[in-house]
Structures are given as structure tokens and as C-alpha cells.
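Subject: Interface between my chains keeps coming out wrong

I've been trying for a while to get a sensible model of this assembly. When I model each chain on its own everything looks fine, but I need the whole thing in one frame so I can look at the contacts. Pasting all components below, labels as-is. Any help appreciated, I'm running out of ideas.
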Amino acid sequence: MTMAQRLTKGVIRGEQVTISVDGRAVQAFAGETLATLLMIERVAAFNQTRGGQPRAPYCNMGTCFECQVKVANGPQAAPRWVRACMTPVVEGLCIETGAILGNCEHRDEND
Amino acid sequence: MADFDVVVVGGGLIGCASACYLAQAGARVLLLERGQINQGASGQNAGSLHFQLEHRLIQNMDQHARELEFYVGLARTAIEQWQELQALFGPATQLNMHGGLMVAETAEQTALLERKANIEQSQGLEVHLLDGDEARRQAPYLSRAIQAALLCPSEGHCNPRLLTPAFTRMGRGAGAEFRTQAVVQSVAREGKRWRLGVACGSAPDSGYSVTCDAVLNAAGAHAPSIAAMANLHLPLFPVALTMNVTEKVEPTVTHLVQHVGRKLSLKQADDGNLLIGGGWAARLRQTEGHWPDSQLPQISPDAVVENIRTAVDVVPRIRSLRLIRTWTGTTAITADQLPILGEVAQAPGFFVAAGGSGFTYGPTYARLISELILTGSTSYPLEPFSPQRFSGLNAFMGT
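Reply #2:
Try treating it as a single job with all components included. I did that and got this:
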């Protein structure tokens, strides 16, 4: 996977927030997409197929559904599947990468 | 000697499977496909293996009682063949035969299922009528609104993008030649042989011709144009249909699901996506009263909404899923909904295999038409499907 980096010049970032990626506390900027964050964190499998194949962003515009990832609004909240490329970072999100699709609600902010 | 024993026109499922079976029997076979293998309806359809009488056939059950008997008999032949294909291709084509359910939501529909089950059982097709609770026990994903279901244990599905290429590989191995970007431009009788003029799609000036003893027209919705080149009418009409696919979810729908009174086909692919169709119309593009076949049909948004609504009524889990893609394809139907399989009497050596549930029955049509071409007879009677039922149309045509 290509090493992803945030642009540093000429970009206005949201406030810095902390979210959880597979139980690890990660610094991120409010408003950037989960896809951006997870690529910077070098996550190779956003989800995986039932055959064990890793999946990651392909179109980065909400069409292909390859970047779906399991998130909850906090450690106690019910998880749901979202498209990482269409979902902005907010404080306190808990992300589980590499999960097998299904078995909880499928919905994101743009639905 | 002619260049080939048989030239097959059309690289869809029927054409490629026929080329394969003909070559396996020792014939010298050339297949001509104007675009790419599996580019048309064979690769765009729902991939259902539906052996129960369908919604569209049941609507005219009384008019076509005799033909339907043959159709159910053909289903038994097809089931045996799919079981062989499962052993032959297996997981490589994502073929599974876990059973199919045709559901009913009303008392009237349940009565229709009962009538249908009687016809099917009397013809030796294994089906079991389940009440709503038993249906939900076997298929917990079904809605409380389902009052009855007819289970056919042999039904299932197969990935249409994989099946035709599998036949093509097997056909090549058996010595058949497959040419893509090969546009047939003329089909002419020459003594007891046929000569086909062919243009190369990528270099239209580099035309050539081939001779053969038999032509098999397996060009699907384009089959009437190929027949016209031989000065024949072929009463097949293009039909534009719609398919939908949802995002991937956990294993939910284990059967092929159809509806006896509403247009629905529903199944879950190996990857977890739900495929939703059932004969909902798209719109053929039209120019000056013709259907130009170069453009894909246009999606009808209302049809998509109704298709999904039907699916949600039957499987409520679908309500919370997102649709990721809708596509269209063009298939071909006849006035009596049955396929056209056989030799055209006015043009000896000109065979047709097109129309009529071409995915479920495609491999069977291919095997039977191959038998007819090579031996003059078939292991299952093709008379009800013969082009001779439209022979009046060709009374003044032919060579």
C-alpha cells in the first residue's frame, strides 16, 4: 500500500480529536473522512470478505462500497457499517477494522 | 469439404455451450461473436436456476397447457444437466442448488401454488408445498406475510459472469475455435453449404468468408438480424430487463426466492450481495421505429422502486440495506414465451437456439441443438419448440 500522508500546506483542518482504531487511541482531525484516517494509519483491511479477502477503498466517492468499516459512536454504542470515504471523523468514534460484513445495521450519514 | 462442420453465431451461453458440445462430439466448430464472449444477456441476467413454472408462464397456464407439460419435462432434463455441471465446474462458477422457494402472500396466490404444484408433480418435478410457518422454519428470513411457499429442492443459482467463460475454456480445450470482434455480415446458401461473410470489428475492411455445413443462430436478441441475412423471418422480440444488487451482508437468503403473484427473483451471491430482479422492465432505446442494439436499455426508476418494495415485502432484512448498483440487459422472447430450437425447414442446415429462459435452460438448449445438428434427433423432444410453429411466416421466404 502506498504510504498516505496528510497535506500540510494550504489546508485548514478541523479541531484535533481522539478516536479509537481497534482499541488504540489515534489522533485525527474532525471532518476528515474515516478513509483518509485509516489510510494514514496504514490499515490494509477496512473489512474482509467471508472468504478472508481484505477490502480497502477503491472509488473513494461512495459508489463501490469496498471501504465499508464497522464503527460505533462510543465504546458502549451499537456498531454499524459505514462507507469510510463518506463518513467524517468525530470525537470518540470507535472503529473496528477487518471485520466481516454484516450482522449489524448498515447505514451512514449520507443514507 | 466446407471450412467447418458448424459455424455458431453468438458468443453467449447457448452459443458457447453449443460450440463446446459440438467440438466434444468431434465436429469442426467455429464460433463468431461480434463483441466479447458473454457480453450480452448471458452475462447480465439474474443467474437463477428456476425449474418451477414462472410467474410469466403461469399467467397463461390455461392457454399453453400442452407446452407447459413439455416445459416441466425439460426442467427435469435441465436439473440432471446442472448436477453434471456442478461436478464439472463446481465452485469455479459459484453454482449452487440449495433449493428455491416460490412464495404466496394471499389465499388466491396460495391456491395458484397448489394448482401449479399439481401440474409439476404430475410431470415428475419434485416440489413440496409448505405452509407459512414451515416456510419460515426452513427460511427464517421470510416475512410474516408469507402464507405458503412451494419448495423445489433442485433450484438455485449460478454466477452468469463465470458460466459462459467456463464453457468457452472447455470448448477451446475440445478444439472449437472462438473468434471475438467477428461481425457476421452475410449468411448465404451455396449449394448444400452455407457461406458467412465476416468483418473484423477492430478492422472493418479486413473481411473474409467461411463455409460450413450447418449454421447455428444463437445470437439472442440479435438472432432475427442473423436470420434476415438468410432471408428468413424469426419472430423473436427484444425485451429490456432490470437487475439490482445490494451491498454485502451476512449469510441471510439461502434459497432462490421467487413470488407466484408478483415479479421477484432474489438470491444471495457467495460474496454476500443480494441480487434482486424478477422481470422488471427497462426501456429499449428507439430510433425511427427501430431498436438500435448498440445502446444499453434505460433504467426505469419506478420499476426499480417496485422491484425493491416487492423484495422488502418478502424479506424484511433488505429494508435496511443499500442498493449499490442497477443495470439493464436485453433478452428475447417469442409470442408463446417458449424458446425457438430447431432447424428452419425452408433453409436446411440453418438452426436456431434462442429465447425462453436462456440461462436456466441454456446448457440444455445447447446440448439438445448439438444433438440435432449432429445426429438429426434429440434425447428430449424439441417439437414444441421448433421454428416450424411459425413456419407460415417463412412460406415466401428462404433461399
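Reply #3:
Confirming on my end. The CA atoms of residues 57 and 67 of chain A lie 4 Å apart.
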